[in-house]
Write a structure and sequence with these properties.
Layout (H helix, E strand, L loop, with lengths): L1 H39 L15 H9 L4 H12 L2 E6 L2 E6 L2 H8 L8 H4 L4 E2 L2 E2 L11 H11 L5 H5 L2 H21 L3 E2 H18 L12 H17 L10 H30 L8 H10 L6 H35 L1 H14 L8 H6 L1 H13 L5 E6 L3 E3 L2 E3 L3 E6 H4 L41 H18 E5 L7 E4 L1 E4 L4 E6 L5
Parallel strand pairs: 2-9
Antiparallel strand pairs: 1-2, 3-4, 5-13, 6-9, 7-8, 10-13, 11-12
């Protein structure tokens, strides 16, 4: 009996010690949090929702109501100016719109992508997702090695050779739209274009013929599930600990596994074919493997990076382009005078040709302006973040080092100080003779970490839009909203539902 009394006494003492240590740790964290607040509170910013969670609750409330957090960032910028502070637990983010700081940080390789933001995309709920691919790599040397491997696959000479695939896949979309025109049925343009852009990236990058306009595939839903999971995983640190979210988390992990297992299979098959001397497509996957083979050494880590980039290109290579095209169609349908002008250019340059050439794209200058203006108002990848170790002076404020800097092309594109009447859709802002925006327009980011696939995306978008304008009239179905859905990337919430009919060339 005495033994049990002693044991109980020891247990009570141990519990009391544990509680005391937890209290000391909690008190220490509170003091550290107070120190962080005092260190950065000279920088303006909205009032914190709470001492511990900072501004997290405001953003989570917007997300949970299917809102659009980038509009809140715009509101805060208009209220607090070109530099303001946000707190998330003990993390501080400095939101910046002043062009000089944007230039200094984004154009320099010494400011890495922010670890807190991009490491959240390494995996989703424990399942590796984008890993350390081109978008998410925070270590400059790792990123630079991958970029050097990837560059030949996106050279202008190589991209010229993709025109046949761009034309072929866009032509299939025209056939599908023709069927809708014949049947006089409504068309969800975003859904159809998603099929085409995924077809294109699968074919030209990996030699896979999905033909999604005529076949079903699990990939579109898997990509959408991963993007939605990415949104919650990156912005809500406590999402995975809520039991009610477990079914959704399971679906996200299964979607991640599908994409990565498919990539691993395709990479291995292609490498085996190349080693056996078989004929292989001269696509991006082959180019990546060839270039990687020229490195002095290929490690298992390098193999994993290739798989990371498979998922990166498969997801980002179709999602952003599809959203751009859907927004573009939406705006042209709302502005008949701009639609008429860009259609005339297509008629003058393309005429009745079915095959659009690389040289034709260079002559579609007004269409380029239309696409650029679409990305100004609706940047499908709305922002980026960098980390600064050293102290900086930003718009007169001394900002101590050790913080993340957030840059939003969505916000800068909608600020009156940079673009007059910013919500007015006006492609002439990007006329060749117009003044160039000074570090306030960066839908593909800026500097060494700018998007590798931007020329690819612009070529694809031009081919699809030129064929659409050449063949069809399209009208928005009344009653739909023009709201934006924040799904990691920005997309039209309505899907851009249209009626389509063949053009009357007698007009």
């Amino acid at each position: 009996m005495a033994f049990f009394h002693v044991l109980l006494s020891w247990t009570s003492q141990a519990l009391m010690l544990l509680l005391f240590l937890l209290f000391i740790a909690f008190l220490g964290y509170c003091l550290y949090l107070k120190h962080i607040h005092m260190k950065y509170d000279h920088i303006p910013g909205p009032p914190r929702d709470s001492f511990f969670f900072g501004h997290s609750l405001t953003l989570l409330k917007i997300m949970n109501s299917d809102g659009h957090v980038h509009d809140k960032f715009l509101e805060w910028t208009e209220k607090y100016g070109p530099v303001y502070r946000l707190n998330f637990l003990h993390y501080v983010t400095i939101c910046v719109t002043c062009p000089e700081t944007t230039k200094e940080i984004l154009m320099s390789p010494k400011y890495p992508k922010d670890l807190f933001v991009y490491k959240r995309l390494f995996s989703l709920f424990g399942q590796r997702f984008l890993g350390e691919g081109l978008i998410t790599a925070t270590d400059h040397e790792k990123w630079y090695k991958q970029r050097r491997i990837m560059d030949p696959a996106f050279s202008s000479l190589y991209l010229r050779g993709l025109m046949g695939t761009f034309n072929e896949r866009a032509e299939k979309l025209m056939v599908k739209l023709g069927e809708n025109a014949d049947k006089k049925t409504e068309v969800n343009m975003l859904s159809l274009i998603n099929c085409v852009t995924l077809d294109v990236i699968a074919k030209v990058a990996f030699g896979v013929d999905l033909d999604l306009l005529n076949n079903t595939s699990p990939f579109p839903k898997a990509i959408e599930k991963c993007l939605k999971g990415m949104l919650y995983y990156a912005r809500d640190s406590f999402f995975e600990y809520n039991p009610k979210n477990r079914p959704f988390i399971k679906e996200v992990k299964e979607a991640c596994h599908l994409l990565r297992s498919t990539g691993a299979k395709l990479i291995q098959e292609r490498k085996t074919a190349m080693q056996n001397g078989d004929d292989v497509p001269k696509d991006i996957l082959t180019q990546i493997i060839k270039s990687a083979g020229e490195e002095e050494s290929m490690t298992q880590e390098d193999e994993e990076f290739m798989l990371d980039n498979f998922v990166t290109f498969f997801v980002a290579g179709q999602e952003t382009t599809a959203n751009l095209l859907a927004f573009c169609i939406m705006e042209l349908a709302r502005h008949p005078e701009i639609l008429e002008k860009v259609r005339k250019e297509v008629d003058d340059v393309i005429g009745m040709k079915q095959e659009i050439s690389y040289d034709d794209l260079g002559q579609l200058t007004y269409l380029s302006q239309v696409l650029k203006e679409t990305l100004r108002i609706y940047p499908t990848a709305p922002g980026t973040a960098r980390y600064a170790h050293e102290d900086l002076v930003v718009d007169g404020y001394n900002v101590p080092g050790g913080v993340s800097y957030s840059f939003s092309s969505y916000v800068t594109g909608r600020l009156e100080q940079f673009f007059k009447d910013p919500l007015t859709f006006d492609p002439d802002r990007f006329h060749p003779d117009a003044p160039k925006p000074y570090y306030c327009y960066y839908p593909f980011a800026l500097g060494p970490r700018s998007c590798l696939g931007q020329n690819f995306a612009q070529m694809e978008a031009k081919v699809v839009m030129a064929k659409l304008l050449q063949r069809f009239e399209f009208t928005l179905v009344p009653g739909q909203t023009f709201d934006i859905l924040d799904n990691g990337t920005l997309r039209p919430k309505s899907g851009v539902v249209c009626t389509v009919r063949y053009r009357d060339y007698k007009k």
